[in-house]
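Model the whole thing, not chain by chain.
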Amino acid sequence: MSDLTSLTLAEARDRLKSRTISSAEITRAHLEAIERAKGLNAFIAVTADKALQMAEASDARLAKKGAGPLEGLPIGIKDLYATEGVHTQACSHILDGFKPVYESTVTGNLWRDGAVMLGKLNMDEFAMGSSNETSYYGPVASPWLPPNWSRDRARAATSSDKRGLLTPGGSSGGSASAVAARLCLAATASDTGGSIRQPAAFTGIVGIKPTYGRCSRYGMVAFASSLDQAGPLARTVRDAAIMLGSMAGPDPKDSTCSPSPVPDYEAAIGRSIKGMKIGVPKEYRLEGMSTEIDALWSRGAEWLRAAGASVVDVSLPHTPYALPAYYIVAPAEASSNLARYDGVRYGLREPGADILDLYEKTRARGFGPEVRRRLMIGTYVLSAGYYDAYYVRAQKIRTLIKRDFERVFADGVDAVLTPATPTAAFGIGEKGSDNPVEMYLNDIFTVTVNMAGLPGLVAPAGLSSEGLPLGLQLIGRPFDEETLFALGETIEQSAGRVTLPDPWWA
Amino acid sequence: MSVDLNTVRRIAHLARIAVSDAETPHLQNEINAILKFVEALDEVDVEGVEPMTSVTPMQLPMREDVVADGDIAKLVLANAPLTEDGFFVVPKVIE
């Protein structure tokens, strides 16, 4: 591990600007770190040549005027973003060999601002999963050692089936693992029900899902279009603010993308939170919740109070229905979005006796079990006779969930504080039971935010008794990401920077 | 509500996913577990509530109705598993 890979994105940016380091140097350092970390399986495609070319071009721009805000900074890209001419499969077998002929708006914005692409990051297939175990490219290991494991035992496990190692969460598991293991300065991720925030909590890093419409979805492989949002994973709140500032922005290619200009998110870091009102929703205090999570939550409220905010109890009565409603809305939209994988236009094709046979065989072989299951649920809840009972009812409940938040914000609450996850990270292979709902419960605190289209930020807030990271979530008003960055930094400062694990994998 | 084996086969066909007889019971269990989970929604009073159609209150932007791109057949076909003379190739559909 070189010092160059331990820099924050902001520190690296400042050193590049003052020309004490070059982009070629820091890019090479990260490519070497990736090479040594193959056992984590975070990167599924490394674009070393492209990265070095981009770094060289950045160094040339840094030498003259005209360098962008992310000039020369090496980052990783979730496999869900279309990157022209580069592996883009949302980690599904059905997109075998797919190389887009266009660039997603979010990645295009990052390259416009000077960022350097190291490669594509592992994820749950089509972002459907909470542990990165549904990826066609295999599970990702977290850089955090399982409690009481030796480095040797963990290293041995990386070269076998990885069972027992910790998951980095999902679906943005490759992004989270790579950022926490210092294989890239930051990464793009995406969040439909918690896929940025749960991995951030599991790996001791920062993630933000911005307001629906803040980032363009053009060129992101679609899962559930009314819930999907792009966002960054980074090691500090400031770094997440810098990344989001480049990723976000209006885009005529996505009609749901907001035309409003992007504020200077980094300027919100350090802003006083004095006088802010923080809501603590009682419905998030689950029966049987661990005392550890409860204590963490109280400590978070205490930190914000100490910094001058007031903390009030609030009620979001429809919270318990968010997750069940999500498991109707998201699969329904997925069943429609994923109809495009037909074995004809791109990706995998299984020969069939006729066109129907070709479709059915291609989709049976190309989709993994979790995706198949969700597509069937989605097809069922949209089918004749069930549409009103399931889909329309779920969309009505979504209205009620959004109203809950609107009421709280109308009462003067600036942000809502909740735990990020019900537990710390679990082991690979640990949640393989017959009941898929067991895995779904991971998103119980995060999914409401997607259902209501609000911004949500997760920052590391401490360690469990077993020494694993735990996060807190801040939920804000629509398009008020700045308040979340200011509050998030207060939590980050109060909790103290997380010491990320030494590279046992290298 | 729960689904029987025939319904599982029907949904699989509607979703255009081939399933073998061997995997159908397993799928049935999993789908029923999810349907049981979402039953909680039945207790919510949704009388008079509008279903959500857009999570953010924004107007759909309009642009001028003009041709904005085109003539990119090669790019459209670039990732197709099988093409011929600028067309996608599928098994014969008309006798």
